[in-house]
């Protein structure tokens, strides 16, 4: 079961947010104090009330709490918009939750309610000053029939869906509460054993392997975020019965073994997020989980935020994740509509990446203002050649270049790849890199991947089969530029140097020049590459060597795919 969409009306600062698509990963963005947190809290409160059917039996109890957080209860005087209270004494806050059921869940629903759902399950909560109303949004006789079984419906949802709320400030108590939940589930496996119940005297011996295994698993998870952490130890504390299921201590060893509540905010935040991944992997008694996280980037180093994004995406592959954020790194660049803009009391899915940039206060130069995808190449000569090839090879890339959706930016040296990738991603651009297949190019790719700013789907290199090192010029036919070199520099490209595959293009051209009495220099190499690029661009796609076009064809396919949702 998944929460497919959510509608909220007249809750705190939000007057209208209609059918927000949530899917597996949703990002709430917007200026400060415009309501991002209120939308998130509305989801938590609505699901909490819905999963506790007894509240609708009395229609009086509205004081649902998530843990000890008073903010996650409903109180009309605080939560119904203050600007409307004087003129609407009987006003109500409304939530509509639309659930997508798996086929097996649809069958189970049919068996429990005798109603065959022909669409998603839509439920509406209406919260007033003194009462709560609950109804199913169906048509005809099915609605009347379901009205008598609303408690069963609420219980059906509660048994299959749960929500984990993570506030922006993540104290050590939060991380420890997550460990308590993990420990409770693990210990429950032992408590159902009658023999275990009779042998409380052997409690310590029975608990030791469970705690040890849990500590080992948490050590691996936390260490993936904080390499300095050598060990995480979970110990039970408190009374005997309570210790069976809950009450844990978390010790983190990052060179100095200390209780988590004595570590810095950054470590606490990372540990809490790491535990989320562990929770998502373990599941929760067969229920689907929704993680509602406020500003998960809080207290994190910029490099750690890139790693955090990968973890949230991993969690979203099996559970739903909803976040509020001020970080461009966490924005979904691939599917823009997954970003929800919260502004001036309204919440709507973004239609274009420009709206997300505006909401985050990101400003770009004119040539990148419309770009959703930036191709990074090593030099201006590479850009000139690819700009000539793309329109001839791909209608999609031709349109993207013309509209500005695709931009090509130069690195001015492969060593700048990591910096430029981070810069463009911070500006909410998707990035793809195309570099030479030489030592500098390969090291730049490795460094960007190691830093977490580039992944394996975001680059290609100018690889030539049979060559240890190669560059873009190695993909050209010699006829495309040899006359230009002769005319500009008075040097003839000789087969004895050019026909070998042992050295890359620049080295072979250098051998020609030196053999013909032309001293070589970096400045001369740049001049030659400019002349070659100009000649190849004038010739167009026919300058590409048909036997070496594999990297370019793959590059075009990758770029087209990444522009598919633009």
Q: What's the number of structural domains?
A: 3
Q: Give the rounded overall mean pLDDT.
A: 83
Coarse structural class: alpha/beta
Radius of gyration: 30 Å
The beta-strand count equals 18
Strand content: 15-25%
Task: For the record, give the distance between the C-alpha atoms at the N and C termini, rounded to a whole number.
Answer: 29 Å
Q: What percent of residues adopt helix (DSSP H or I)?
A: 40-55%
Extract low-pLDDT stretches. Answer: 53-67, 238-242
Biggest sheet strand order reads: 7-11-12-3-13-14
**Biggest sheet character:** 6 strands, mixed
Number of helices: 23
Oligomeric form: single chain
Structure description:
The chain has 566 residues and is an alpha/beta fold. Helix 15 packs across helix 16. The strands form four sheets. The chain has a six-stranded mixed sheet, with helices on both faces. The protein is 44% helix and 18% strand. The protein has three domains: 164 residues, Rossmann fold; 115 residues, Rossmann fold (3-Layer(aba) Sandwich); 196 residues, no CATH class. Strand 5 and strand 6 form a beta hairpin. The two termini are 29 Å apart.
Condensed summary:
This protein is α/β, with parallel strands linked by helices and 566 residues long. 44% of the residues lie in helices and 18% in strands. The strands form four sheets. The chain has a six-stranded mixed β-sheet, with helices on both faces.
